[in-house]
Write a structure and sequence with these properties.
Elements (H helix, E strand, L loop, with lengths): L6 E4 L5 H10 L4 H6 L4 E5 L5 E10 L2 E9 L5 H18 L4 E4 L4 H5 L7 H4 L14 E4 L4 H61 L1
Parallel strand pairs: 4-5
Antiparallel strand pairs: 1-2, 2-3, 3-4, 5-6
Length: 205
């Protein structure tokens, strides 16, 4: 089986029998995972056979990778590559800032997952369970507060640009009005001059 030919998608209820089979093989808590099957991304072939799966649990702006299973473990790293592409898309769509996992494969360490410091533990979501165990974490983007600060800075910049644009447009309108007034005065001056010359010429006749 070539992992490149498999489709990566969200698990559906039709995948459950195969997922339960794989979870049981890996001695995972399948009864709990069965209730949360929509957290899982699956790799399937054209016949609908599930060759691998990994869960991503989301709590606010953080995610947890869990429950990875493979029908053939020699495909594991190739499928992890495919799953990682999907995980990156989901992380972006949900604006995730941190990814946590207890998956111990060197593959995940190769993508930057590392043991959490006290700073990271302070942000650990209670929804992910106990802090005990071999947790690792990956920072994806700035925290929401920092993101808000960046948005505020951008808003201030955009507002200043709008103000400068409006000022420039107002100056342009004022110059246009001034040019119109000067043109009108020039026209009146020419008209008066011509009238003066015409009256003088008529008086001499």
């Amino acid at each position: 089986m070539d992992a490149a030919h498999l489709s990566i998608r969200r698990a559906t209820v039709d995948d459950l029998p195969q997922l339960v089979e794989l979870w049981k093989q890996e001695q995972l808590p399948w009864q709990e995972l069965e209730k949360r099957f929509t957290e899982f991304q699956v790799a399937v072939d054209s016949q609908g056979t599930v060759w691998g799966a990994v869960g991503i649990r989301i709590a606010k702006h953080q995610g947890q990778l869990h429950g990875e299973v493979f029908r053939q473990w020699d495909l594991a790293d190739a499928l992890r590559e495919r799953f990682w592409e999907r995980i990156e898309t989901l992380s972006h769509n949900h604006a995730l800032t941190l990814l946590w996992t207890q998956l111990s494969s060197p593959f995940w360490h190769g993508y930057g997952f590392h043991p959490p410091t006290a700073e990271f533990w302070n942000k650990f979501p209670a929804e992910f369970g106990d802090q005990g165990g071999p947790w690792t974490v990956l920072s994806l983007r700035p925290e929401p507060a920092q993101m808000v600060d960046l948005e505020l800075e951008f808003d201030r910049f955009a507002q200043a640009e709008r103000h400068r644009t409006e000022t420039a447009m107002e100056q342009a309108r004022w110059l246009k009005r001034l040019a119109t007034i000067l043109a009108l005065l020039l026209f009146l001056g020419v008209l008066l001059g011509m009238s003066y010359l015409w009256f003088n010429a008529s008086g001499k006749r």
